[in-house]
Amino acid sequence: MEGIILNSLDYPILTVTTFLPLAGALIIFFLRGDELIKWFALATTMTTFVVSLPVYKHFDKVTYKMQFAEIHPWIPAWNIHYKVGVDGISVLFIMLVAILSILCVTVSWKAIQTKTKEFFISLLIMETAMIGIFVSLNVFLFYLFWELTLIPMFFLIGVWGGSNRIYAAIKFVLFMLAGSVFMLVGIIVLYYAGGKTFDMLELSKVNYPTELQLWLFLAFFAAFAVKMPMFPIHTWLPDAHTEAPTAGSVILAGVLLKMGAYGFLRFSFPMFPQAVKVLFVPLLILSVTAIIYGAYVTLMQKDMKRLIAYSSVSHMGFVTLGLFTLNQTGIEGGLLQMINHGIITGALFLCIGMIYERTHTRMIEDYGGLSKTVPVYVVFFTIFSLAAIGLPGMNAFVGEFLIISGAFKANMIVATFSIFGVVLGVTYMVWLYYRVALNEINSSSKSNLFDLDWREIATLVPLVLLVFLIGVQPGILLSYMHVSVEHLLEQVHTAVPFETIKINDSIILVAEYVRGLFWWV
After folding, report:
1. CA neighbor of 369 nearest in space, from 348, 355, 387
2. pLDDT (tens digit, 9 = 90+) per residue, 466-512?
3. Among residues 130, 99, 101, which one has the least CA distance to residue 465?
4. pLDDT in tens, 14-52
5. Nearest to 68 by CA among 78, 53, 79
6. Domain locations in the chain?
7. What is the CA radius of gyration of the chain?
8. With the C-alpha atoms ordered 453, 458, 463, 469, is the resulting torsion angle positive or negative?
C-alpha cells in the first residue's frame, strides 16, 4: 500500500509498546503492597522502553513512508481500521514518552504515600494514551487516545495534587474538552468530505475546497492550541502545573504540550495546506507574542513551579514559530525543540519536586544558598538551568538556532522580535538560579535540607546525558526527521506554490475569507 511499510518484525512492536503499560496497569489492580506495586510499575515502564528499542534500530531513515505499520479491520460499518505506524516525525516521541515514564515512577517512589495503587495505575494508563497518539494512523483511533489522556491526568492532579488541586483539575478538563469538541466536529466533517474514511494518509491526499480547509483548520486549531497551550488560551497551564504532583508536571511539560504541535504536523499541514498558507504570518505573529509575553510574565513569578510553567508558554511559542516558518530549517528546529523542552523542563520539574519533598515550599523567597547546603543537587540544577537558557553545547541551543534561522527565512521582522524572547529567557533563569542557589542562606529551611540520594541521582543522570548528547550530536535526532519533514513540505508547497506572503497581504486574505464564511453579516 502506498505511503506505508508493513511491519517486518516477527511481532507487532508498536501495538506491544503501546498497550504494555495498560496491561501492567491491569495487573497492578490485583496486586497488594505498596513496595510490590512500585517495583512492578518500574519494571513495566522499563520493559516498555526496552521493547521499543528495535523501532530505532530497524528504522529506515531514507524514506518518508510510515514504518512498522499494522492494519486490522475494526468497525467495518464505519470503515474504521486499527492502523498504526511511525515516521521520522513521530518516532522520536515514543522514546521521549518511554524515558519520562520511567523517571516519573522513580521520582514518585517516596513522594506518593496515599492511594499508591491508583496513582501508578493512572500513570501507566497515561503512558499508553500518550504512545497511542504518536502511533495512530486512523483519526478515530487518534481521537480515542487523545481523549484518554484527560482521565488519568484529571486524577493525577485532582487526587495527588496541591491544596487547590480540584480547581486546577476541573479547569484543565474544561479547557481540554472545549477544544476537543471543535476537533470532533472537524473529524466528522473530514470523514464525509474525505470519502467516508478515517485513514490519515488517505485524508491527506484529498484536495479540499479552500473555504472548507479554513473551517477545518480552525476546528482542529482549537484543540491543538489549547493543548500546547498557545497564547492567549494558556491560563489552565500554570494552575495545572502548580497543583500537579511532580510526575504529573513532568508528563504535562514533557509530552502533553507536544501533542498540539504534533497535531499541526499530522493534520493541519498535509490536509489543510491552503489554510496554513493563508494564516502562516498571523500564526508567526501569535507565536512571537507568546514567546515575549510568556518570558515577561515568567520574570514576575514567585513560585518555582509556576515560573517554569509560564516559561513553557514562551518555549512552546518557539516551537510554533519554527513549525509555521514553513521551511525545512524551522520545522526541524521546532521538532527538535519539542524533544529538548520535554527533557529540560521535565528535569527542572523533577528538581523542584525533589527539593519540595524536603522543605514543603515552592516559594523562591524561602530558598537561598543551596550551593552550600545541597551541592550535588545544585550541580544538576545548574546543568538544567544552563540548558534552559540555550547555552552552546547543550540541547536547547541547537533547537533555538534552527528555529530563529528558519524564522529569518520566513519573515525577518518576526524573527527579530523573537530574539527578545531569548534575552528574557536568559534573564528569568539566571534570576531564579541566583535566588535559589547563590543568595543568602534562608535559616528557616536549612535544617530540613539534605542532599540527593542515589535514587534521585539515578533519576536525573539520564536527562543530563541527553542534554549533552543532543547538544553535541544533534544529527542523531535530526537524521530521523529530515526526509519526513522534506516530504511534509512537499505536500504543503505542492498544493499551493510557495511565495513569501507579506503581513498586509496575509491580513487582507484572512479578512476576505472571514467575510466569505460569515456572508450573512
Report:
1. 355
2. 999 999 998 889 999 999 999 888 888 775 554 444 444 444 444 44
3. 99
4. 999 999 999 999 999 988 888 899 999 999 999 999 999
5. 53
6. 4-517
7. 22
8. positive
